[in-house]
Amino acid sequence: MVRRRAREPRLPGAGRGGRPRGPPAGLLTARPGRRSRLPPRVSNLLLLAATVLALLTGLATWFVTTDDNRWVVATHGAVGLLLLLLVPWKQRVVRTGLRRRRPSRWLSLLLVALVVVALATGVLHATGLATRAGGQLTMWWHVASGFAVAALLAWHALARRQRLRRTDLDRRLALRAAGLAIGAGALWLATSAATHALALPGAARRPTGSYLLARPRPTIWLLDSTPDRADADPATWQVRVDDADGSRDVAVTALADSSDRVRRTVVIDCTSGWASEQPWTGVPLAALLRPGPDDRAVVVRSSTGYTRRFPLDRLDDLLLATDMADAPLDVALGGPVRLVVPDQRGFAWVKWVVEVRTDPGPPWAQSPVPLQ
Ligand code: HEM
Ligand SMILES: Nc1nc2c(c(=O)[nH]1)N[C@H]1C(S)=C(S)[C@@H](COP(=O)(O)O)O[C@H]1N2
Ligand SMILES: [Mo]
């Protein structure tokens, strides 16, 4: 990238922007007969803004569960495709930058490669042209490359910091930004229309963008691990229950025999791009717990330490399930006992539950996504 600022002489009377008042840059530098280009620092910052927006809207899709919020997923798709429109602008900057042969140019090129992977996996997933690759779902690679982009981008933007000049924020930039937003929306509509017209698998995505599978896919959030099969024995597994009545152990065998058992059909929808609708059988937390007057949350903890909190008004909906599709839960799917959480993405569905307790802390006092 060009660092022109550093080489510019400081002119008397120049403000913090480093440029004397006068006609905007575009008027001076535009070549006749050619559409004037945005200064490289402006293209760079637009690209940075679009990438950050792609990351933020991508994360926002993790909180979508219903059709009402489908627009969040669509917005992310459009913002992602916006990056495609910005590639031609960046080419010139990249070419100039590479000529400088900085040792860190390899990291910058890796960043470009990761953005390309994120773009490609996004489109392959959304259209359904390739929903798996290398033993993982395409969406898993999408999220992984997205986070790698975030890390490298933070470095890249700091290392190649550039400041906008006041004269950059002109009408031309506003028109360009509006044009890009319209272009991105049109590109998203075109991809979506083509997916349906060609009856690609992507046409059958859920509002979250996930594909329905006949069975859940055993999934670990980040660094957690599945307990040994031998340790996950329904005959001996206990759940510690702690509430206004004190603390006691409830055996999975007791849950399996309980007269409070219900069977409910609920979709589990994982952020790695799959979902599955299953009948789950178990005991609602409302039948197990009695909150005290000061309690505001219920805390559910796994034998692995993986923990999520929920508001007390969800006690009727939250199920401690021992069975899926009328068979005992396999250990890979959270057996002997897991949480079923209607209207929350898969990461809230704590597997291998060993503790449920009421708690005076607020339900939101946790990281929005698990860190384990
Ligand atoms: C540099 C970062 C990213 C880029 C460039 C990007 C780009 C894209 C693109 C181009 C699509 C396909 C849009 C379409 O054809 O309809 C897409 C889909 C998707 N992306 Fe990203 N993305 C990024 C980061 C993320 C992150 C961090 C997440 C999640 C945390 C995420 C979640 C999703 C989801 C769920 C879809 C599927 C949407 C659907 O099925 O309609 N993305 N992304
Ligand atoms: N203890 C524990 N529970 C967990 C996870 C985990 O890693 N550890 N992964 C979560 C995620 S991300 C999903 S999508 C579901 C997956 O459930 P499954 O393996 O039965 O498909 O479990 C959730 N519960
Ligand atoms: Mo998940």
TrEMBL record:
<keyword id="KW-0472">Membrane</keyword>
<keyword id="KW-1133">Transmembrane helix</keyword>
<feature type="transmembrane region" description="Helical">
    <location>
        <begin position="109"/>
        <end position="127"/>
    </location>
</feature>
<feature type="region of interest" description="Disordered">
    <location>
        <begin position="1"/>
        <end position="36"/>
    </location>
</feature>
<dbReference type="InterPro" id="IPR000572">
    <property type="entry name" value="OxRdtase_Mopterin-bd_dom"/>
</dbReference>
<feature type="transmembrane region" description="Helical">
    <location>
        <begin position="45"/>
        <end position="65"/>
    </location>
</feature>
<dbReference type="InterPro" id="IPR036374">
    <property type="entry name" value="OxRdtase_Mopterin-bd_sf"/>
</dbReference>
<protein>
    <submittedName>
        <fullName>Molybdopterin-dependent oxidoreductase</fullName>
    </submittedName>
</protein>
<keyword id="KW-0812">Transmembrane</keyword>
<feature type="domain" description="Oxidoreductase molybdopterin-binding">
    <location>
        <begin position="232"/>
        <end position="357"/>
    </location>
</feature>
<feature type="transmembrane region" description="Helical">
    <location>
        <begin position="139"/>
        <end position="158"/>
    </location>
</feature>
<feature type="transmembrane region" description="Helical">
    <location>
        <begin position="71"/>
        <end position="89"/>
    </location>
</feature>
<dbReference type="Pfam" id="PF00174">
    <property type="entry name" value="Oxidored_molyb"/>
</dbReference>
<feature type="transmembrane region" description="Helical">
    <location>
        <begin position="178"/>
        <end position="200"/>
    </location>
</feature>
